[in-house]
């Protein structure tokens, strides 16, 4: 539709990121606003409505119009009803019918999907996955998310409100506890929260850590970026944590590759910026553990869209939804 745009929205615990996209994946505007995750659902809805109307005006000034909105939200969703069942980033949104309420305010179709799934849609549309029919997506952030692209389409399983949850595959039954209540999940080894917990445990065990890490732990301000900086400077404990991350990712991906009969993955999310620290251990595990795979055929790619991948994917969700609307 010439002159038509869709709005893609990535709702995080800290910021709402929004963009105006044409049908070919061209981005024509970008906005960012606080998500006020601790506030009531109505406040987030009002912020979304204001930002969407701003982008609608931008489209009008460019001689076009907005025809649909796509939302990416972390957590378990009832996508048919447009309702957030549970979101770790937005705990106050539990049970809130976000998509219908936004549709009511904007008078246009609104579609909603899990944030890791829209990461996959974005990479498949205009990112690293656009010429790969079958691949696994992994997002490394505070937690670990995942998706599966099969024959070029997002796999949704039996539409239970979740799919592709690679972060909650158990890679070590005797490993560290996970936020989900299990023990030894991939997320407990390969997430930002796992890095911070690992450094905290090292301090409690009497390990010698860099002074800046010790200070940050004592003030509760340690970030995954701090742990990466320590590893990059040669700290052995930080490096061991990233090696463990790489081992766990390699094991999880190797198992899935063997089960699915595919050999490609795309990794994104903020913690993937530490690629040089975990990639060698991940590839070593993939070369040695899954015996049915040809190591030379395995492709593990970094996100081509970086932190904006879910934004592109949310817009793609909207365009695809219009085709079925």
From TrEMBL:
<dbReference type="InterPro" id="IPR000600">
    <property type="entry name" value="ROK"/>
</dbReference>
<dbReference type="InterPro" id="IPR043129">
    <property type="entry name" value="ATPase_NBD"/>
</dbReference>
<dbReference type="Pfam" id="PF00480">
    <property type="entry name" value="ROK"/>
</dbReference>
<protein>
    <submittedName>
        <fullName>ROK family protein</fullName>
    </submittedName>
</protein>
<comment type="similarity">
    <text>Belongs to the ROK (NagC/XylR) family.</text>
</comment>
